[in-house]
Amino acid sequence: MVKKSAQPVVRKARTDAVRNRERILEVAREAFTRSGASTSLDDIARQAGVGAGTLYRHFPTRDALIEAVYRNEVEKLAAAAKRYGETMGPLEALRAWMLLFIDHIAAKHIIVPVLNSVAGGASRIYEGSRDRMREAVEGLVRRAVQKGELRKDVDPHDLLRALVGVAHLTFDPEWKASARRLVDILIAGSRVDLRRGRG
Fold this sequence. Notes:
With 199 residues, the chain is mostly helical. It contains nine helices and no strands.
């Protein structure tokens, strides 16, 4: 009698593990945003629908979970750049990603106190995430330049600096609305002017 392969069971177990991890990160992000770094990890596990053991298997410490939450958000932003680049026109993709980047900044402001609670401080966590953001926007700008829709002298880092600047240099609660308007201004000012042949 031929034994059935156990491979499907292994694959299902791996799929469940990935799903559990993603669910934990989602719930943890909401919990840390709402209640800060002191949020009960057992409560997070319960709200995620997993046992405490499952949570600690993925994230042995509170710091590990906090770091993973932030890095997961950064990876989502990087993945969005690739997705937008494959499914949208060059300028549409760049605009959509920049608007998403504004949402990322807003969420980061809220969770900063939590990030600061991690051993070594938030700056250590930010290391690497800056590179991921630069790579994302560089790819989108490069594509728009190659397609002749964006000027060749556009510095993708200047676009990020402008948006981050609006977030950090104002205490106006309307900063996010201002940043969204700035996205359209930046793109309009960076477009190739076909009438003047500026590229």
